[in-house]
Amino acid sequence: MSASNTNNRVKVVVATSVMLSFISFWRAAAIVLNDLGSSAFYAGGIAEKFVGKSAPWFILGVMLFSFAVRMLYVESSSMFTRGGVYRVVKEAMGGHLAKLSVSALIFDFILTGPISGVSAGLYFAGLANEVLTLAGFATRLPANLTAMCFAILVTLYFWRRNIKGIHESSEDALRIMYVTTTMVVIMILWGLFTLIERGGQMPPFPAPSNLSYSEDALGWLKPWKWFVEEGDRYQIAENAPGIVGAIGLMIAFGHSILAMSGEETLAQVNRELEAPKLKNLWRAGIVIFIFSLLFTSLVSFFAVAIIPDSERPRYLDNLISGLAMNFVGPTYLKLMFQVFVVTVGFLMLSGAVNTAIIGSNGVLNRISEDGVLTAWFRAPHKRYGTTYRIINLIAVLQIGTIIVSGGDLFILGEAYAFGVIWSFSFNAMATLMLRFKRPEGREWRVPLNLRIGRTEIPVGVMSVTLVLISAALTNLLTKPVATIAGVVFTAVFFSMFVISERINRRKLDLTAANLDRFQLQHNETISQTAVGVRPDSVLVGVRDYNTLSHLGFILDRTDTDRQDVVVMTTRLVAGPDGGERDLYDENLFTEYEQRLFTRVVSLAEKHGKPVSLVVVPANNIFDAVAQTALLLDSAVIIAGASSKMTPQEQARELGRAWERLPEKPRRQVSFKIVDDVGKEFVVSLGAHAPSLTEDDINLIHKIWLQVSNVPSRRRVHHRDVVRVALNRLERELRGQSDVMLDFYKIEHEEEAKPRKKV
Question: Do both 486 and 621 map to the same domain?
C-alpha cells in the first residue's frame, strides 16, 4: 500500500461539506460584542483627551457609521462564507496587497491585547486607589506601572492557555454578555436618575469652533497656521476656511474610530450561524449595533454630563469607574458598583486579550497554509498539538508592546487606531473592486446602487470606502507615533511574508519529495460507498503526527479482513480563527495533512494492515467524529489520550455530540481512549445498559428480597426494582429534592477510588 508510486496513490476521501455545530444569532452577537464592546471601557476617554468635550458626539458618529461598515462585512460574507480581510483582499487585489492588508490586520490584533490588558489594569488600579483613599491611606498604586504589570500577567496567562489549546466557547461569551448587560442597564438607570436629581451638562456640539485638540492630536499638522494654541490645547482659528473645519472634524472622527474595533470578528462567526444564515447575520448585526450604540455612546455622554470638568481628566483612562463614583447615592453603593464595573471590565477586556492571540494565530496560520510562511511556523507542539511558535511570536510582540508603551493607554490608543482603520479600508476597497470584478454571487448588497445601462454604480460602497480612506489618510498625518510604528511593523511583516514565501517555494519541491502523494477524492459528504468500507468499522481519530500510538495499538488488535479501519482527521474551519478561512482544496488538504497521512500510511505498512483515510472539515472535532461514525455505521471510535482533557472529559464531550446527532445510530457504539502505554478507557455512547458493580447487584437483590417477601408482591422481578427506583428518581429530580447531593457524593467516592484498567 505504498503511496510513493504516483500510479498507485493511496486514496484520501475529502468531505467538501463542513460538519458544523451551529449557533444562534444571540450567541454570535455575544462573541462579537465581547470584542467590540470592550472598546467602551477606553474609547471615550481616549477620544476626549485628544479632541476635548465634544468627543461623545464623535463616538456616537462612529457607532452610527459602524452600521455602514458592518454592511460591507455582510456583503463580503454573503460572497465568501469564510470571509475576512485577507480572503476578500486576496480575491480582489491579489497576493501582494493581501499580504499588505493582513500585515495591518496583524498590527490591529497585536495592539488589541495590550490596549485591552492595560485598560483592565488601569480600572483595577483606579479601584485600588479609590479604596485606599476612602480607607484614609496616603499610599497610591502607580497607575501606568500597575497596568503594565497587570497586562503582562494577563497576556502570559492567555499565552499559556493558547499553547494548551484551551479556548472559550460561545456559551462563555453569552454568560459574559448577561453580566455586562446587567451592568449597562444599572449604569443607564443610575445615570438617568443622577441627571434628574442633580442635572448635568451636554457636550458641546461638534462644530469646528468647539473642537479642542491636545498637542498629540494634531501630529504633523500642528505647525499649520490654522491651528491656534490656547493654553495646552489647540483650536481652529476663527478665520479658517471651511475646508480646514472639515479636516478638523475628520481629525476628531479619526481619533474616535477605535470605538468600532472588532468588526472583523463578524466574519469569524458567519459560518457558524444557524439557518436562515443571512437573516440571522442581520439579526446579530442589529443586536450588536443597538448594544454597542447604547453602551459605548452613553458612557461618553454620561461622563461629560455627570463628572465635573475638574474631576474628569483623572478618570479618562477608567471612565466608567469615574461615572460610578460620581452617581448620586451613598458611597458604599457607588464603591460596590465600581467593583462590579471593574469585574465586568476584567472579563471583557481579558477576553479581548485572548481574542487577540487567537485571531493573530488564526490569520498567521491561514497565511502559512497559503505557502506564505514556512511550515516551521506551523510545527505543532509535541504535547498539545498547537502552533506554539506562532503563539510565542504573538505573545512576545504583545508583551514587547506593553513594555514599550509603559502602560500608557493613550499611546496604545493612537497605535491601535492605525491598525483598525487600515484593515477596514482594505476590506472596503476590496469589496468595492469586487463589485466590478465579480458582480455576481451575492445574496445581499450594500444599498444605494445606481444602474446606468448595464453598469451598476455602487454609491453606498463608494461612500463608505471614501469615509474610511479619508479617516485613514488623516490618521497618517495626525498620529506620527502610530504612523511610524504601523508603517514599520507593516513593512517588516510584509517583507517577512515575501521573503518567507520565496524560501518556501524553493523548499517545497525538496519537502514534497519526502512526503507521500495522495489521490484526493472530493465528496459532498462521507459515506460507506465513498470511503469503500463495510459497516461495523473502526473509526480512529488522528491529528498530531507525533502521537499515533493509539493507531498502532488498534492495528495490532484488529483483524482487517473482518473489520475495516478508517483513519480520520478533522480540519477545523471555524472558531476564532475561522474568519480567515475558506473551503479551498489546498486548505482542506495542506502539507500538514499530507505529512500526517504519510506517517499513518507508514505505520499501517509496518503492521501490514490496510486503512482508509478521511479528511472532514468541521468547526467542532467531537461533532465531526460523531457524525462520521454515524455515516460510516462504525462500531468503535478510537482516540488518543488528550493533553488538554481527562479521558472522562473527552468521553463527556463526545457523548454530548452523540446526543446532538440528527438521527438515531443503527448500532451501539463504544468510544475507546488509548494512552501512550496502551492503557484503555472505554465507554458506551448514547442509551446503553450500565455496567453494574457487584455492590450494585447485591443492593438490587437485597431490595428485591425485601419487596418480594410481601405476599402481594411476590411477582416482582429484579428489573422492577430498578424501574421503580428510576421512576422515583425522575420525580425527585423534577421537584425540589436534594437528590443531586447523592450524585455529588457518588462522584467524589468514585474519584477517591484508585483507577483500574477497563
Answer: no
